[in-house]
Amino acid sequence: MASLARIWGTVCLAAIALSGCDLKSLLLFSPEDKINAAFPISETVHAGKTALTAALPESAHGQFEAQYEARLRLRALGCAKDYAPSFFASLDDIRQKLGSPSCFIAADNELASWIGFRRIGAILAHGDLVPAPTQAPEFVVASGSIANASFARSAGMVLLDTPKAAEIIGLNNSKQIISYPRTSTIGGWLSPNGRLFTVSEGNSVEVREVVSGNLIGKLPVRANYDLQWLDARTAFYLDQEGGNTKPVLIDFTSGKKIALPMVSASVRRAVPAPDADNQYILISDQSASRIELVRGGMEPEAKLMAEKQVRTDGSWTLNRAALTSDGKTLTAAQGARLTLLSLGSLDTESISLAPFNAYSAQPTTDPDSIVLGGFHAGGQKQFVYSITQKTLSEIDGGTMQSARILVVPSLNKLGMIKDTKITLVDKLPTQPAVPMAQFIAAALELANQQKLEAFEQQQRALSSHPQAGTPPTTTYPAQGTGQIASLAQNARIEGVGVYQGVRRPGAREASNISVRVRRSSRPIILVLSSYEPVRWNISYEPGAQVSAVLLSGYHASQVNGAGAARVISSGGAYAYKQGSSEYNELNRNTMRWTGKGIDLFQGRYEGASFEVGG
Predict the structure, then answer these.
(1) N or C: which end of the chain has fewer CB within 10 A?
(2) Domain annotation covers residue 394
(3) Each residue's pLDDT tens digit, 371-411
(4) DSSP code string of 60-97
(5) How confident is the prediction for the chain on average, in pLDDT?
(6) For residues 282 and 388, what is the distance between their CA atoms, to the nearest angstrom?
(7) 377 inside domain
(8) Boundary of a domain, candidates 94, 122, 150
(9) Is the separation of the CB atoms in 583 and 608 below 8 Å?
(10) Is the pLDDT of residue 422 over 60?
(11) How far apart are CA 496 and CA 602, in angstroms?
């Protein structure tokens, strides 16, 4: 027997010598193993696998290893096509036969994405990073002006978007957990348990770990508002791969991206169904769909459960629509109309607010109430609206009126954002409730009085200067009148604002900023604003629609590439921080021209390129 073993060993050594292959390649049993050895996995995949193995419970290691090995086999088979190396082929022979490693690089990118999604799922499975405090602080203070705030759904934490960084603060002691420096755009959302946050960078959104700031995974989406956490295992986002925007779900437990061909491609909002686990409501401007994510089999599968047409008077984007605190109703403010979508029945109710023009709807801790912000003849106002009673209660105080109001779900409190500070309160100071019909009648009366006063003033001016022949003109049209207002009726209004473009220190010449317009279901009116002079260069994807461009700024700017869109110099307002006094003035100016507020706004102190539409 020993003699036979010696003979076999001699034969093997001779074969190795004659073939020129190495011992390692012979010891690799399958052709797939040899191919993967010839083209090793990337360091990114290796590091991600190590981190995921450490994050998973030990009981899940075996299943993960089996899934990983299966993906490695598919990597080899997919890139080798119909080639299978012989037993005696060396790793150099395999590399020479297959040539370019580009297929393996692409496969590794997919593998890294899957591992990243699985890591996100493992982190989401943990409890809250910071428990909600029993005693809430009175204030949360940032190091700079707060452009946006994202409170974790269950953890006692908040992400504050400031000019220099994303600051994540614990509500238990008001201390900073991490400050992630701003590069280009930032903003973002905290995961429900507060362990992850998102950062918008270029054409992708990064998911990072809160404590370390380490990158966990990337999603091919344009901006933070295109990603929405749904629950501890699922998110919705608008996939940009291949140049077409497609709504998808990501199941972080399996690391799978689930296509949704059964719903409209124009879906922009997703929320959990209020009455069933693993079911979600996806909303476009035309329809609302209930889908179920079935997780029992080999692959998660999305099934369409119900679908209804919805009225198109609502805009269901994150900054225009509010999910009531009980999760049962989505409310959308769009111009002079409020739309309510029942997430249980998928029925809609449309309520006229005219002559009040709403620009935002925000939830409160009371599921029957939302905060409506908007304009009428009395100026900019915020009201608490009762859904069942159909009453409006005006919010008291100048500071309260100009503050942005958000719900702090982990504390069941309201947060009022003003400059660098968030004030936490139990309820809003309001005037007595007024029935909607009474409010509308009073607003119409005030508007008529203002029109009469303006007419009388015009007649006095004519009497004083009969030689002029025409009355003096105003800088802006009255609230939403004229051709631009007509164009705005069926358009989405998107704003882009900067203090300046990228330019040399001390220079005052116009800098170039590119604005790429993506294809969208509705035409777009662009609001472009800056302090320093800017040369706005517009480009279009096929099918993109721009009805008009409102150009605004402290110094004179210009627009190139607008095509058939009408370009109007709309005044001197400029803003690059949503919620600032400058933004409010820019929004008021937009209202004067279009009769509507800005639907989506992107702002940076210094910018070079933006994308709108989609």
Answers:
(1) N
(2) no
(3) 988 877 777 788 999 999 999 999 886 655 557 788 999 99
(4) GHHHHHHHHHHHHHHHHHHHHTT----TT--HHHHHHH
(5) 83
(6) 24
(7) no
(8) 122
(9) no
(10) yes
(11) 5
Contact 559, 532 (CB under 8 A): no
CA distance 150 to 604: 18
Q: Tokens for 426, please give them.
A: 């139990």
pLDDT in tens, 213-232: 999 988 877 666 678 889 88
pLDDT for 29 equals 67
Residue 67 sits in the same domain as residue 202: no
pLDDT, tens only, 370-382: 998 887 777 778 8
Dist CA 176 CA 403 (whole Å): 23
Range of the domain at 106: 19-122
Q: Provide the percentage of residues in the chain whose pLDDT is more than 90.
A: 42
| CA–CA dist 118, 106 (Å, integer) | 19
pTM of the model: 0.70
**What type of residue is 336?**
A
Please say if the pLDDT value at position 585 is more than 80.
yes
CA dihedral 334, 335, 337, 341 (to 10 degrees): 0
Say whether pLDDT at 126 is over 70. yes
Distance CA 223, CA 601 (A): 11
Q: Look at residue 2 and give its three-state secondary structure.
A: helix
Same domain, 98 and 131: no
Q: Which residues contact 101 (CB under 8 A, 6 or more apart)?
A: 39
Shared-domain flag, residues 273 and 321: yes
* Contact (CB, 8 A) for 181 and 161: no
C-alpha distances (whole Å) from 309 to each of 237, 305, 312, 332, 590 are: 22, 14, 9, 16, 30
The SS3 call for residue 175 is: coil
Pull the structure tokens for residue 100. Answer: 């370019």
Tokens of 302: 């999305």
Domain presence at residue 193: yes
Q: Confidence band (pLDDT; 50, 70, 90) for 357?
A: confident
Question: Do 84 and 138 have their domain in common?
Answer: no
Q: What are the strands of the beta sheet with 227-229, ordered from one edge?
A: 227-229, 234-239, 246-251, 256-259
Q: ∠ at Cα 470 (467, 475), nearest 5°? A: 130
CA-to-CA dists, residue 102 to 79, 106, 114, 521, angstroms = 9, 6, 19, 36
Q: What contacts 519, CB < 8 A, 6 or more positions away?
A: 245, 541, 542, 543, 544, 545, 613, 614
Higher-pLDDT residue of 519, 479: 519
Tokens of 201: 């960078």
66 and 87 in a single domain? The answer is yes
494 domain residue, yes or no: yes
